[in-house]
Write a structure and sequence with these properties.
Elements: H1 3-10, E1 13-14, H2 19-24, H3 30-34, H4 52-55, H5 57-69, E2 74-76, H6 84-87, H7 96-117, E3 124-129, H8 152-168, E4 173-179, H9 182-199, E5 205-209, H10 224-231, E6 238-246, H11 247-260, E7 264-270, H12 284-296, E8 302-303, H13 311-321
């Protein structure tokens, strides 16, 4: 049993909030994204948040620190777009291993410092593995329904490189998140299993899908139950949902998931739904009330925040989570 599994038996674990929301506060310029190292780089780099682990590592470390101080037990690495597929937008495919390795090291260094301060409450690092900007299940061209922009094998190879770098950098868990196409996620899971087998190691895996709208389906058309069936062949630490919806809208799907799975469950919803300007204005207290509904109903083992959430949201969530027992799985019962 891994350290994180032992903690999950005792309490609800708190995941951090949004990295992007916090980085917006810095208002980094093109020059800030480039730093000294990429001063003459031929491509525009503003918006490549993963690159900030190399050019603004102190900012990334400070954000992790703020989330741990707010009560998070797990922080995610700054690697949401850390594949050759996503980095092709910036012509930075060659940097993928370094980006993931350094991001993991930054998060692990902060987590270790917090664990050393209070060994009774260990802190963990989840290697964030995003969905990429391509989809393996659907055509991006309405006139060519048979066309695919990416193959399963291309995804597998890209994810494998990311997974190896995250593990080398010291992550405790791998988090395949914001899944809008389960075939992409299956490629990530296949890559993880390959690395585990080749290295003869065990590492816990969290999976988090995205219900895109009121249809209750992922972008590639799967219901909660179909999504769960598609990934349950892998021995997962947890399965859950994040992004797209706020806590209130996400609850019915979380309820269905909780009823159907024996894995631990997770959720990191957005701070409500975006307003007309695409901003999230749900306060920490408003979100806390909605999250408490999850806890009263015993739906959750791991809880955090996605778009629009910051350390204030995580502090409010952590404050209320400590008053409740974690969801019991059938295995424990």
């Amino acid at each position: 049993m891994s350290n994180i599994e032992e903690e999950l038996l005792k309490r609800i674990l708190v995941l951090d909030g949004a990295m992007g929301t916090m980085l917006q506060r810095y208002n980094f310029s093109e020059e800030d994204f480039r730093g000294e190292r990429f001063k003459e780089y031929p491509t525009s780099l503003k918006g490549n948040n993963d690159l900030l682990s190399l050019t603004q590592p102190q900012a990334i470390a400070d954000i992790h620190k703020l989330y741990f101080e707010a009560g998070a037990d797990i922080v995610e690495t700054n690697t949401f777009s850390g594949t050759t597929i996503a980095m092709a937008d910036y012509n930075m495919e060659d940097l993928v291993y370094e980006l993931n390795f350094e991001s993991a090291k930054i998060a692990k260094c902060i987590a270790t410092a917090f664990t050393n301060k209070n060994p009774q409450r260990p802190r963990f690092v989840a290697g964030s593995i995003g969905p990429t900007n391509k989809t393996a299940s659907m055509s991006p061209d309405v006139n060519k329904p048979e066309y695919r922009a990416i193959t399963f094998d291309e995804l597998r190879v890209a994810y494998k490189l990311q997974v190896e770098a995250l593990i080398d950098g010291g992550v405790d868990v791998l988090l395949v998140e914001t899944i809008f196409d389960t075939l992409n996620a299956k490629a990530a899971l296949f890559a993880i299993e390959e690395v585990k087998e080749e290295r003869q190691i065990k590492i816990p895996i969290m999976v988090s899908g995205t219900i895109t709208d009121a249809s209750g389906r992922t972008l590639s058309g799967q219901t909660v139950e179909a999504f769960l069936t598609s990934i349950s062949h892998i021995p997962l630490l947890s399965v859950g949902f994040n992004c797209a919806l706020g806590a209130e809208q996400l609850k019915p799907y979380l309820q269905r998931l909780s009823n159907e799975t024996e894995f631990y469950t997770s959720a990191h919803p957005n701070a409500g739904l975006p307003n007309a300007f695409g901003e999230y204005d749900q306060s920490a207290k408003q979100m806390q009330v909605l999250i408490e509904d999850y806890l009263k109903d015993g739906l959750i083992n791991i809880i955090g925040g996605c778009c629009g959430t910051n350390p204030e949201h995580i502090r409010s969530i952590a404050d209320v989570a400590q008053n409740y027992q974690p969801r019991q799985t059938k295995v424990e019962a």
